[in-house]
Amino acid sequence: MGLELYLDLMSQPCRAVYIFAKKNDIPFQLRTIDLLKGQHYTDDFAQVNPLRKVPALKDGDFILAESVAILLYLSRKYKVPDHWYPQDLQARARVDEYLSWQHTALRSCCTRAMWQKMMFPKYLEQPVPPEILASTLAELDRCLQMLEDKFLRNQAFLTGSHISVADLVAITELMHPVSAGCKIFESRPKLAAWRQRVEAAVGENLFQEAHAVVLKVKDMPPLMDPTLKEKLKLSVQSLLH
Fold first, then answer.
1. What pTM, to 2 d.p., does this model score?
2. Which PANTHER family does its entry note (predicted)?
3. Which of 82, 97, 131 lies at the terminal end of a domain, its last residue?
């Protein structure tokens, strides 16, 4: 068995891994794990990833969790073009810097913005206090400003003149609040121009393919299975803070 990627394209880091593998012609078998159906809680998936999270990678007997580790493993094993994760010490350090920052910054507020604005009220039918949503959107705005001021600055891409894994990780995060109706690019022309460059570098068809699932979530009916609904509510309650 060759390379297997366990993904749900509802997930931001799964989309980053999917785009990276497809763009670089890395052959893989897609194993879809439906998060909203709780498939990551099954015993079968726990054998692959005891953390019960996606993405996960299986390469023969080698199993790897965590999206950043997977992206870097793929970049090294398949000898992708250098711009994705540069050999130059300082250029690579810039990519590492962004990847280290985004976990507790952009990842956190983009996920909460999507769930509070769309998933809790529409899919789980659980009201979100307006003050909590307002606080999350204000935090998202601060993160976007930091993304522009600290990382993008006046460059074409987040870490320089060429696209890197940092840009993939960032753009897939930002499409989460976009899917919930947040107009995050409308008042930020610099960020909007960067998005266009990232889409062009990846390829518009691949970009749309990777985001088709999440952009249709707003049209999903409420979750009707009471057992699954309660289990899902329990697993995401931390996103209400």
1. 0.96
2. GLUTATHIONE S-TRANSFERASE THETA-3, PTHR43917
3. 82
Residue 35 in this model has a pLDDT that exceeds 80: yes
Distance from chain centroid for Cα 208: 14
Share of the chain above pLDDT 90, in %: 95
Q: Which residue has the tokens 């289990």?
A: 231
- How do strand 62-65 and strand 29-32 relate by DSSP bridges? unpaired
User: Amino acid identity of 206?
Assistant: L
Q: Which residue has the higher pLDDT, 83 or 235?
A: 83
Number of domains in the chain: 2
What pLDDT does residue 241 have?
82
End-to-end CA distance of the chain: 43
Residues 119 and 214 in one domain: yes
CATH at residue 107: 1.20.1050.10
